Amino acid sequence: MKEHELQHMDEEIRECIACPLSDSRDGAVPGEGPEDARVVFIGEAPGRQEEKEGRPFVGRAGSILNELLSSIDLARDEVYITNVVKCRPPDNRDPTVEEIAECREYLDREIDRIAPAVIVTLGRFAMQAMFRRYGIEAGSIGEERGTIHRVERDGRTLTLIPVYHPAAAIYDPKKKDVLLEDFRTLRRILDEER
After folding, report:
1. Which CATH architecture has domain 2-192?
2. pLDDT at 178
């Protein structure tokens, strides 16, 4: 049933015209991964390559994400990967508050359908969206990265971990070490929760 619901939502996302991003996109990018994933990764928005392929995190940042997953013996097909907004903002600009609000229903539905044990937010936009959802006061991504937040939702505990967006390592190679450290934290949490 869940799989059918996610497939139906994929179709909705690809046909969505709720915000102006639909006017400039070549295609929308729904989330991808198993409906029973223990971990959901949430990024900001699709880039050029993601829009072209219709899949999240397949460009340069996606290569780094794959490397980070591999560093903790986690396969990409074991996790669910999505974005706060499902269409590429023009010129890779930041998504607006309005665009994020229009896509929020999709993100909320993805999370509710999958019911992961852990959500890893990739960058500040995803962090802010999830902190709002769970009523957490957000600092900057630099202050919050790597922190572990446990929240109660629908009678179960969820672990929320904000980390830098993998693209940060493209522009600042030192951030790669920070990301590797934060992914080791994720591995520890997954091992503890088995």
Report:
1. 3-Layer(aba) Sandwich (3.40)
2. 97
